[in-house]
Design brief:
single chain, alpha/beta, Rossmann fold, six-stranded mixed beta sheet, 15 strands
Length: about 475
Amino acid sequence: MDVDSYLSTRGGLAPLRFREAVMMGLADDGGLLLPAAIPDVRPQLDAWRRLAYPELAVAVMRPFVGGALDDATFRALVARSYATFAHPEVTPVVTAGPVHILELFHGPTLAFKDVALQVLGNLFEQFLRESGETLTIVGATSGDTGSAAIHGVRGKAGIDIFIMHPQGRVSPLQERQMTTVLDANVHNLAITGTFDDGQRVLKELFNDLAFKRQYRLGAVNSVNWARVLAQVVYYFYGAFRVQERTGAAAIQVAVPTGNFGDIFAGYVAQRMGAPIRRLILATNENDILSRFFTTGEYGQGAVHPTLSPSMDIQVASNFERYLYYRVGEDPARVRELMAEFARTGRFQLPGADPLIVAGRGDTAMTLDAIRRYWREHHYLLDPHTAVGVAVAERLADAAVPTLCLATAHPAKFPDAIRQALGEDLARHPTLEALKSLPVRCVTLAPTCAALAAHIRATLAAKN
């Protein structure tokens, strides 16, 4: 069943096609875009198990793409996207003691964001080539999204990309992965605030519809539906591999998350019929999401810097998509709750979701997980993955195999590894090469006015 029709969570748009949804990013009514229906793919699962990753990606995403791309073009685009990965399986599964690990860090920037952003960059390029138009991508990153987005579109014709990161709040290697890219279409911005400030500024800019249309703004953050869609694929792939090893009818998946995008992809996979019994949501000390799933309160707190900086988030931009389903696909109720959150910084929602359990992994748990998995299983966890593993150990159903998402290569966080193990074990040649390269970055105040002025001036100077 093709579902090439997209609606806003806030109900203010006429239905869009896939191409329009990808190019719009954040919905013009301030909501997030979702497919009008989610297909039931359970009849296809046995056939899908035998597919290599690129072929599985085509099969999973095809119903949502509809007529935007013909089969040959879409297959070639997906193949091109995953040709950049260092592992032949793209996202291999390895076993480490009591858990299975889905390694999502074999792309060009060594983070799970590559799995989606290589696809999204190629979708942008394809659609712009066909239309002859240009695109200005604006994004905010807590670490990995920025470098993956930059590497997805660097040097591509018709695209300029502006990426904000919180100054001093991403790891030095994450920062260098962004700021050492000197292509003329890449513009790095260090904002003097938090990632949540960056997300706020980003939403304000996209809600300025005149500016959005004049500069043809596009989104690479997980507010873009294509980002989420590409991530749905690896939940199927990981579940199939674990089933092959264990013979289990279904699995549970532990997901370290701050912005709710990665775990929402798992939620979509689950609704499609992936053999996933439940999702284990893991946060660090920035625990707005784990608190919601344990207490029903979605309440904003202060951002706490941690060893897992990509999760140092207190306003999860993808949560609104989940909220839409949680309230029975009622856009009026979504608008009401989001308005209450904007006004007070919190809202309460009664009831529970049996498909999601949640917990918090603090710094001590993170370091302990890194230490134990290295010493007992000779497997090196990055600090984000360690949060997921630590929470899974506490909440997993022992009768069901557990798959933990490994969201980044540990070499991206050498300080955390050194703190846990007392040794400098986290290295990767791609990252080592960055240390001697020149950088380019502009510092900005975290305001919509400052960002808009910088974009205007930069694009005017280029033209």
